[in-house]
Design a protein that fits this description.
heterodimer, A: 338 residues, mainly alpha, ABC transporter involved in vitamin B12 uptake, BtuC, 13 helices, B: 702 residues, alpha/beta, Rossmann fold, 3 domains, eight-stranded mixed sheet, six-stranded mixed sheet, 16 strands
C-alpha cells in the first residue's frame, strides 16, 4: 500500500471524529428534508460567523483537555475580556493594537489558572470553578449590568465593513484552527501537549517540563478566549456585561463530542471543528424544522450521550474482532494531574 | 504460613492515631477555624447574626444544597463527579407537580414516584459510568443538559405548579415548636445515613479504595461497577429528595428548580476537604464546608454587603482551602495522597506550621476587608452627637435615634433595567436621608429572593420593597415579614395581595401586553406576521406578558399572526441569532417584538445586519440601549416606563408607608420631585407605559 494520505487514514483511530461527522451529516440530511431553505448562503454565513468565536474557545479547550485538565472559567474570562476590549477601544486605542492587547489580557487570566494548576498542583476543575465565580461576580459588582456603549466607529467590524468584517472573523478562526492543528502534529511543543496528557511522569523523564506545558496551555486558552471575545464584540455596536454565560459548557461539549478524551492524551482539532459545527447548528436546525425551542437542551444532552455511546459501540465492534479489548480503568478521575 | 502474616508494615498505620487525628482525620479543624472566624466577624458587622432564629434560618437555607453536597461526597470520593444533580432537581420538581396536579395522584404517591424517578435518573448515570466505563464528567454533563431539557420540554417552560396542600408546605416552611424548621431532620437523617454508609460500613471503605485506585480495588476483589452503580443511584435519589424539600420550601414546582445548585454543592464538598481526585474526604468535612459557605452568604447579607461579594469570597475561600491542603500534603510527592501516609508525626509539625501561617495570612486579609466594611457601615450610621444633625433634616418625629432602613430588591442584579431603577432609588434615599439596602439574586436561582428577604427580616429593616419573580414562592416570607412589623411593598411585579402593604404599579402585565400589541398593530397597519423574542423560557413575568399579548391578538387583531416565540436567555448575542433564524424561516415576518431588555437591541443588530428594511423592531427595553437604533430607524419604538422614577417612587413610598402618610384610602401621595402621585386602593400608580420614539428618546438618560 502506498503510504499516501488516503491509504494511511485509519478508521479506528478516528472513530469518534467519524461518529460526530456522521451525526452532523444526519442532522443536515434531516433538516434538508424537512426544511430545504436551511441550505442557503446567508444561513451558512450567519452560522459560521456566530460559531467562529465558540470555535476559537473550543480550540483552546481542546489543548487544555488533551493535557488532561479542564477550564470551566472561560465564560467569565470571555465576559471580562469583552468589556475590557470595549473599554480600551473607547479610550482610543487603535483597533489593530486591540488584536494584540485583548488576547494578552486573556493570557494573564489564563496564567492565574495555569500557575495554580501547574505549580501549586491544584486540581484544575476546582481552580477554574473558583475563578469562574470570582471573575463573573467581580464584573457584576463593578459594572452593575451597564453595557459599553458609544464605541468608536472603527470598532465595529474593525472598521472594514460588515461583509469584510464577517469574513475576517471566520478566516481568523479557521486560520487558528489549522495553525494549531499543524503545531500539535509537527512541533515539539505540540507533541509535548499530548505527552503530558498521556503520562506526565513519562513525559518528564523524556525531557518535557510538564508544569511549563500546563502553564502555557492555560495561557493559550486565556489568549484564545480573549481573541474570541474581541471577535465576538466587533459584530455588534455595543457590549453587554453578561456575555459568555454557559460558554464553558458549550466549548467542553463541542470538544468532547469531537472525540477528544476527557482523560487526556487523545484528541484532534478537526474533531473539535466537527463538534462545534454539530452543536452550533442544532439550535438553528430546530428553528428551521419548526421544533419547539423548549426541547433544545434535551436534544443537546442526548447528542452528548450519543457521542459517548458511539465510542462504546465502536470499541465493542473492535473487541469482537480482536478478542478482549484493553481493560480500562473503571473510574476516570476528573482532570487528574499525573 | 500462618506465622508470617505480613502485618508489620500496616501495624504502624493501624495503631491508634492521636485524638486530634481521630476527631479530624482530614484536617477539618481548619474549617472550624474559618467558621469560628466568620461567626465572630459577622456577629460584629451583621445585625442579629448571633440569634437562635438566625441559626435555624441558616439551617433551613442549607438543606437543599446540603443534601446535594452529601450525595456528592461519596461520588467525589470514588473519583467521579455528578453535574446532573441540579437538573435532576428541576426534572423531579416538574414531575412531582405534574403527577399531583395533572394526573391527580395523591401527593404522597406523587412524591414516591418522584423519588423513583430520581433513582432512575441516577441509574442512567450509573449505567453509563459504571458499566460502560464512560467518564463521569462528560456523562453527567450530558445528563445535566438532558434532565433540564426534559423538565423544560415537559412544561414548555411555562407551567408552574402551585397550591400544594399546607401539610406538604409545612415540611419546607413551617416551624416545629415555633422555631425549628422541619427539614432540619431530613438533613440530619441524611448526614447520619451517609456518615454511617461512608465511615462505618465495609461498603464505604471500598468506595475509598475505588477512589485511590479502581484497578487496585478490582484486584482486591471489590466489585467496582456494582459499588459505583449504587453511588450514582443514591445521588439521583437524594437529588429528587432535595427537590421535594425545595418545592415545599418555595411553594411552587417549576422547571428552573435547582439551577446552578450543582456548582454550589461541589464547592461545599471540595471546601470540606474531599479530594476531587478521589480517595479522601469525610462527611464531617462536607457539613463544615456547607456551613462555611451558607454562613458566609447569610452573614454578608446581614451585614448589608452585596451578593457579588459572597461569590468572590466563596471563590477565594475555595482557592485558599485547596492551597492549604496542597501545602499540607506537600511532603507526599504525588498529588493523590493517602491520608495514612501523612500520619507521620514529623510531617505533622511542618503541616501545622504551614497551615497556621496560611490561615493567619487569610484571616488577616479577611480582617482588613471586613474591618474596612465595618468602618464603612458604622460611619454611615450616625450615633450620639452626629444624630442631631440628621434629625434636623428629618421630617418624621418618630425616627430620632436612627435612620430608616429600606431594603429594595430587584429581580436580578446586573440587569441594566434594574441598574437604572437603582439610580432613582438612591436619589430618593439621599433626599430623604434613608439608609438604602439594594440586593438581590445574581443568578437565575428562583429561591434566592426568599433567602435575601429572610436575611432582611433577621437583620431587622424598616421596610422591604421587592420586585417579585415568584409570586407564590415569595408571598410566604413576605407575610412573615409583615407579622414582624416590617412594612412590605412590591414593585415592578406584584406578590399576593395579602402579602404586602402596597404595590408600586408601573404597569400591569395586561397593560404592557396590550400596549405592545397595539403599538405593533399600528406599525404593521393591522395585518401581517410577527415574532416575539423573550427572555428565558421559564421567566414568569415574560410568560405573563405573552399570555396578554395572545389575548389581545385574539380579541382585537385577527389579522396579526404570531409566528414564533424564541428564547434569548437575556443574552444579546443569542437574541441576534434567533432573530436571524426567524427572518429566514419566516421570510414574510414584518416585525420582531423583543420583551426583555437585551432582546430588543439584539434583534435590532440582526435586522440591521441583514439589510432588511421591511422588518421593524420594537419592544420592551431601556431607551439607552436602543437609542442608536431608534435614530437609525431600525427600532421604531421602545415601550417602557421611567425607570428612574420607578426606583425613586419605591423609596418615597416606603418611607410614606412607614410614617403613615401612605395608607389605604389615601387618594394621592406627595413624592418629592415627582409631586403628587395617584393612589388607587393599595396601589401607587406610576403612570401608563411610555412609548419612546425618534422624537423623544433623547430626552431620557436611562
Amino acid at each position: 500500500m502506498p503510504n499516501s494520505f488516503f491509504f494511511n487514514f485509519n478508521v479506528a483511530r478516528h472513530q469518534r471524529e467519524l461518529a460526530a461527522l456522521s451525526a452532523y451529516v444526519a442532522l443536515l440530511v434531516f433538516v434538508g428534508i424537512v426544511a430545504p431553505s436551511f441550505f442557503n448562503g446567508a444561513n451558512w454565513r450567519d452560522l459560521a460567523v456566530t460559531n467562529a468565536p465558540v470555535l476559537i474557545v473550543a480550540i483552546g479547550m481542546t489543548l487544555v483537555i488533551i493535557t488532561g485538565q479542564i477550564d470551566i472559567s472561560v465564560g467569565s474570562q470571555f465576559a471580562v475580556c469583552s468589556m475590557l476590549a470595549g473599554g480600551l477601544a473607547k479610550m482610543g486605542i487603535p483597533v489593530p493594537l486591540l488584536l494584540l492587547l485583548v488576547p494578552l489580557i486573556g493570557a494573564m487570566f489564563g496564567a492565574v489558572n495555569g500557575a495554580l494548576v501547574a505549580y501549586f498542583k491544584m486540581p484544575a476543575i476546582v481552580v477554574t470553578l473558583a475563578t469562574l465565580v470570582i471573575w463573573r461576580d467581580a464584573l457584576r459588582w463593578i459594572t452593575e449590568g451597564a453595557w459599553v456603549q458609544g464605541l468608536p466607529a472603527a470598532f465595529q467590524w474593525f472598521g472594514v465593513g460588515q461583509t469584510m468584517g464577517q469574513a475576517v472573523i471566520v478566516i481568523v478562526a479557521i486560520a487558528i484552527l489549522f495553525l494549531f492543528r499543524w503545531a500539535l502534529r509537527n512541533l515539539g511543543a505540540g507533541r509535548a501537549v499530548y505527552a503530558v496528557g498521556s503520562d506526565a511522569e513519562a513525559a518528564r523523564l523524556a525531557g518535557v517540563n510538564p508544569p511549563q506545558v500546563l502553564l502555557s496551555v492555560f495561557m493559550l486558552m486565556g489568549a484564545l478566549t480573549g481573541l474570541a471575545a474581541l471577535l465576538n464584540s466587533i459584530r455588534f455596536s455595543s457590549i453587554p456585561s453578561n456575555s459568555g454565560l454557559g460558554l464553558e459548557m458549550k466549548a467542553i461539549a463541542a470538544v468532547v463530542v469531537g472525540g477528544t478524551a476527557i482523560t487526556g492524551g487523545r484528541g484532534t482539532l478537526i474533531g473539535t471543528l466537527i463538534g462545534t459545527a454539530l452543536l452550533g447548528t442544532i439550535g438553528t436546525a430546530l428553528t428551521f424544522a419548526g421544533i419547539n425551542p423548549f426541547w433544545e437542551k434535551a436534544i443537546q444532552g442526548a447528542i452528548i450521550l450519543a457521542a459517548l455511546a458511539s465510542d462504546i459501540v465502536f470499541s465493542r465492534l473492535r473487541s469482537a474482532d480482536f478478542g478482549f479489548g484493553k481493560q480500562r480503568n473503571a473510574t476516570i478521575p476528573v482532570g487528574r494531574a499525573k | 504460613m500462618a506465622g508470617t502474616t505480613p502485618d508489620t508494615a500496616p501495624r504502624t498505620l493501624q495503631s491508634i492515631p492521636p485524638l486530634h487525628l481521630r476527631l479530624f482525620p482530614n484536617q477539618e479543624w481548619s474549617l472550624l477555624l474559618v467558621l469560628l472566624f466568620e461567626c465572630v466577624i459577622f456577629s460584629i458587622t451583621g445585625n442579629n447574626f448571633l440569634t437562635t432564629s438566625n441559626g435555624f434560618e441558616i439551617v433551613r437555607l442549607s438543606v437543599e444544597i446540603g443534601l446535594l453536597a452529601l450525595a456528592l461526597t461519596p461520588v467525589i470520593i470514588t473519583g467521579g463527579i455528578d453535574l446532573s444533580v441540579g437538573s435532576m432537581m428541576g426534572l423531579s420538581a416538574v414531575v412531582l407537580g405534574g403527577l399531583w396536579h395533572d394526573a391527580h395522584l395523591p401527593l404522597p404517591l406523587a412524591a414516591l414516584a418522584t423519588l423513583l424517578l430520581g433513582i432512575l435518573g441516577g441509574g442512567l448515570n450509573a449505567i453509563l459510568i459504571a458499566y460502560l466505563n464512560l467518564p463521569p464528567l462528560i456523562v453527567t454533563l450530558g445528563t445535566f443538559s438532558l434532565y433540564r431539557g426534559l423538565a423544560e420540554g415537559l412544561t414548555r417552560g411555562l407551567e408552574t405548579y402551585r397550591g400544594f396542600p399546607d401539610e406538604f408546605l409545612f415540611l419546607g416552611q413551617g416551624y416545629l415548636g415555633g422555631i425549628v424548621p422541619p427539614q432540619l431532620f431530613v438533613l440530619l437523617i441524611a448526614i447520619i445515613g451517609i456518615w454511617w454508609w461512608l465511615h462505618r460500613s465495609i461498603y464505604g471503605r471500598t468506595l475509598y479504595a475505588i477512589g485511590f485506585s479502581a484497578e487496585g480495588a478490582r484486584y482486591a476483589g471489590v466489585p467496582v461497577a456494582r459499588r459505583l452503580l449504587w453511588v450514582y443511584v443514591v445521588s439521583g435519589l437524594i437529588s429528587s429528595l432535595a427537590a421535594l424539600i425545595y418545592v415545599a420550601h418555595l411553594g411552587q414546582a417549576k422547571s428552573d428548580a435547582g439551577t446552578g445548585y450543582e456548582l454550589m454543592a461541589i464547592t461545599a464538598v471540595v471546601l470540606g476537604g474531599t479530594s476531587i481526585y478521589g480517595g479522601r474526604g469525610t462527611v464531617m468535612g462536607t457539613v463544615l464546608g456547607l456551613f462555611a459557605l451558607i454562613i458566609l452568604q447569610n452573614g454578608l447579607r446581614l451585614s448589608g454587603q452585596p451578593a457579588e461579594l459572597a461569590g468572590i469570597l466563596t471563590g477565594v475561600l475555595l482557592l485558599s482551602t485547596i492551597l492549604i491542603d496542597r501545602y499540607a500534603h506537600r511532603r507526599a510527592a504525588r498529588p493523590v495522597t493517602a491520608v495514612s501516609q501523612s500520619i507521620l508525626s514529623e510531617d505533622l509539625e511542618v503541616k501545622n506550621s504551614h497551615v497556621a501561617i496560611l490561615s493567619a495570612v487569610i484571616i488577616a486579609a479577611a480582617l482588613i476587608v471586613a474591618g474596612s466594611n465595618w468602618m464603612l457601615v458604622r460611619s454611615l450610621q450616625p450615633v450620639g452627637g452626629v444624630s442631631t444633625i440628621a434629625t434636623a433634616n428629618n421630617t418624621t418625629p418618630t425616627n430620632t435615634s436612627r435612620k430608616l432602613t429600606v431594603a429594595v430588591m430587584p429581580k436580578a442584579k446586573g440587569d441594566p433595567y434594574f441598574a437604572s431603577c437603582r439610580q432613582g432609588a438612591e436619589e430618593a434615599a439621599k433626599e430623604l436621608g434613608i439608609e438604602l439596602l439594594w440586593d438581590g439574586p445574581t443568578d437565575l436561582d428562583p429561591a434566592k429572593q426568599n433567602e435575601v428577604v429572610e436575611a432582611w427580616i433577621t437583620r431587622g429593616v424598616d421596610a422591604i420593597a421587592v420586585s417579585v419573580s415568584n409570586r407564590e414562592g415569595i408571598s410566604t416570607v413576605l407575610r412573615k415579614a409583615r407579622q414582624k412589623g416590617i412594612k412590605v411593598l412590591t414593585w415592578d411585579a406584584d406578590a399576593e395581595r395579602d402579602a404586602r402593604d402596597f404595590f408600586i404599579n408601573q404597569a400591569t402585565p395586561q397593560g404592557i401586553g396590550y400596549t405592545l400589541v397595539d403599538e405593533a398593530a399600528r406599525m404593521m397597519n393591522g395585518s401581517g406576521e410577527f415574532a416575539v423574542i423573550t427572555g428565558s423560557l421559564s421567566a414568569a413575568n415574560q410568560n405573563e406578558w405573552i399570555k396578554h399579548i395572545k389575548a389581545r391578538l385574539a380579541e382585537k387583531y385577527p389579522n396579526l399572526k404570531l409566528v414564533g416565540i424564541q428564547p434569548s436567555d437575556d443574552d444579546r448575542d443569542r437574541a441576534a441569532t434567533e432573530t436571524q433564524n426567524i427572518m429566514k424561516t419566516n421570510p414574510n415576518v414584518k416585525l420582531i417584538m423583543g420583551i426583555s431588555a437585551p432582546a430588543v437591541p439584539g434583534a435590532a443588530e440582526a435586522v440591521k445586519q441583514s439589510g432588511r428594511k421591511d422588518v421593524k423592531v420594537m419592544g420592551l427595553s431601556l431607551p439607552s440601549l436602543c437609542k442608536s437604533f431608534v435614530h437609525e430607524g431600525v427600532i421604531e419604538s421602545v415601550i417602557l416606563w421611567n425607570t428612574l422614577d420607578l426606583g425613586y417612587l419605591v423609596v418615597q413610598s416606603s418611607k410614606a408607608v412607614n410614617d403613615g402618610s401612605l395608607k389605604v384610602g389615601v387618594q394621592e401621595l406627595s413624592a418629592g420631585r415627582k409631586g403628587k402621585v395617584a393612589v388607587q386602593g393599595d396601589e401607587v400608580i406610576l403612570g401608563a407605559p411610555f412609548i419612546f420614539n425618534k422624537g423623544n428618546i433623547d430626552q431620557f438618560n436611562f
